[in-house]
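Good morning N.,

You mentioned wanting to compare the apo and holo forms, so I went ahead and generated the holo version with beta-D-glucopyranose. This is what I fed in:
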Amino acid sequence: MVTNWVLSDAPAVADLTRLTAYDLRCEHRVEPLGIGTRRPRLSWRLASPARGDRQDAFRVQVLRDGVQVWDSGWRSEWETYVDHGGAPLTSQTDYVWQLSVRDAAGEVTSAEATFATGLFHDDEWEAHWIEHDYETDPYFEPPVDRQEPRTVRQATIAPPRHYRRSFELTRPISRARVYVTAHGLYQFSANGQRIGNDELTPGWTDYRERVAYQTYDVTGLLHEGENVIGAVLGEGWWSGYVGWDTRSHAHHYGKKPQLLAQLVVDHPDGSRTVVATDGRWVERVGPIRFADLLMGESYDARLELGDWSSPGYDASDWAPAGDLGGDVSTLIAATTDPVRVTEEVPAVAVTALESGRFIVDLGQNVAGRVRLRVRGAQAGQQIRLRHGEMLQADGSLYTANLRTADATDYFVSAGADEEFFEPIFTVHGFRYVEVDGYPGELTADDVVGQVLHSDTPVAGRFECSDAGVNQLLSNIRWGQRGNFVSVPTDCPQRDERLGWTADAQIFLPTAAYQADVLTFFENWFADLAVAQTGEGAIPDVIPHVITGRHGTPAWADAATIVPWTLYRIYGDERVLRTAWPVMRRWVDYVHRANPDLIWRHRTSGHYGDWLQVGVVTDRDLLATAYFARSVEFTAAAARVLGLADEAAAYSELWEKVRAAFVAEFVDAEGKLRGDTQTGYLLPLAFGLLDEQAEQTAVKQLVADLERRGRSLTTGFAGVALLCPMLTKYGHADLAYDLLHDDRYPSWGYSIKHGATTIWERWDGWTEENGFGPVAMNSFNHYSLGSVGEWLYADVAGISQSPESVGFRDLVINPHPGGRLTWAKASYDTPTGRVSTHWQLSDGAFTLDVTIPPGATATIHIPTSAPDSVEESGHPLTTAEGLTPLEPTPTTAICRAHPGTYRFTTPA
Ligand code: BGC
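and this is what came out, ligand included:
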């Protein structure tokens, strides 16, 4: 299976002979089809074996049908991107782009990649929305409750239906593309073959405003004569259950699913055939009797339709689809890669329970589904699969924390010797599967876990000498995979799975170290923008459904934090340009409601430092700190965008909020109101205190930790800041103690008790009380995993300077400590891969660093003797490519050009 998740890899520098461009992208995606913009951004990464190498100049040429449509000419720039600068691209066209880069020695290397445009004009769409028409369907069955519903409600989920259209092609085919989407979920087929490996398409967006269409190449699948295209259509987020909303109608956006597809076939003579959804399509129910993202899927193999999407199939008893006309006003070309199956996880154990049921353990909590092999079942025999994250003490499945999500799939056998079942329109958060009704003995080979998530390219890798820390990183990574399912969700298992805004903004810096999440978050932010209220507030969850709340401190501040963070990490100014009106309207909203600059009014849900332990961080303090943060980022965005007046106004406002914060929350002794860890961390991290107050705050923070036996009390808002601030202010030892801690509450405590993902709450399960509060107890919630940023930035030591964007000016500043004797990490910045690897052995400290071409770096080498530090055997003063800076008593510091370096020093 081809996915970005496994594909993204940089060339090994050691294998290169010269500057090499790789990972060519268009609109930040690998060879996208159907882009929706006429002036796309073209970008690339660089690697070079030569120290001090750089891209001296680049040239981009864009070609259509072998004819050049744009030539950037040689540009003496180190930028690794350029916006297409020729005549605007044309609709439905394939392009090749060629890149040449010239290195410091004048040598040129080239690479090329392709992209294709989608439909730019509404009138190019001939497709109509089609849906099931109850009037004409001979197989009509009213929607029913599925078998054995665990939670009884009037489910109105109708069985997914198959749609097809047969047509003749009378001329040869030079190119065929299909543009397709659904109100609901679709899986598309042509001539008997499923198209692509995308899942849960078109993904979840605010369908009232934005419905993404996908583009697939089907050239090789069509032929002269009869052809068939078709799709299976399910409810998904459109009309299935979403969140905890158990209204009898699950219909958040619409009542029943609808399909829209347009096949465009180009012939060598220049003519075109278009086959689009309309009333000529026919449809009927098939083997899928029920499918819902939360509830699960039921499949009756006896009702399979055979080769329903192949030519020659007798579809005479299928019913005409209802034709709803061609309103394409909400359609947008997909801007991000969809969900895919990125990994198969084998079962590690199968246990037979007394009840005759089996419990299958994947050994890893994931989001996805299973593929089940069934052998020797009788026709009509039903097998039930229930999914859960945990087991009860007696070894049976624990599902209470799923709330009303059934997470149950059913398979009814057709009686064949060997059958396979894999649902397509549901996703579960689970580690364990209870299999009931299986014929004979179930073995581990009969079950495979299919891991589903948005196919964001892997960007970072981290490993160290400590197994516990590696497990923590693994849990963080799996938390990301389990929750980046089309939108950044809070959890993948219970009846929630919503795009909670604080969770997203808090985890973003960690997420971005692990995967390239730019287009994923841009897509989500577009839904945030459309959900902004007339007054400027932002709903608690995006896409905006269910919650009536909006404007919550730390949640709604995603409006400024997400775009600013994306800009800093990826260096693409366009993020800010799009977000600017949202940012500004958001801070103006808070300001209007709180003219004295302490954010007390219009705080909506106000969750405070959500899921903190044993303390209550002052809510006004938290809110006002976030207000300052949002104003700061808005001012910064204005500066980048060249909006001088706005920049000045928001900078001034920031000064005032900061002053108001200090006046309100800092007492005469320098204590912050409430005296909690998060209460100190917020102003420290957000730069709200002057130097002296800062020092006092650090002392108080440390004192609090010491008083508690070096134990944390932070919730969602504070936890991300804890280790970074302790490290910044000289207390890395404390940060390491928290990292290695395995008493309650700590990350280690969950790991000691078998966690393979990050838990929602510190007390998800405790020795004293067993399972935590069942009303809200997810075992796969990434927020508390925001410590991942610290592992990359401060433990492995990869970050960027405060003024840098796109990791152009790196800071390499590893902090050896705790039980670690080595750590290594690599990270794919927009210009190329940076890596570090430090080791402590025999009293010596070694640090290997690779800085990609196009970047500069300030490298900090921890040492007991700064003068004795050597790079590849040379003192820093004579080493090639380095400029030593003033050392501190414990650190040698130097500026470095791109290249690979090895520093050695006594520890
Ligand atoms: C979600 C959170 C979210 C919180 C807000 C919970 O139900 O799971 O992650 O941020 O509500 O209160």
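The radius of gyration is 28 Å.

Happy to go through it together on a call whenever suits you.

Best,
F.
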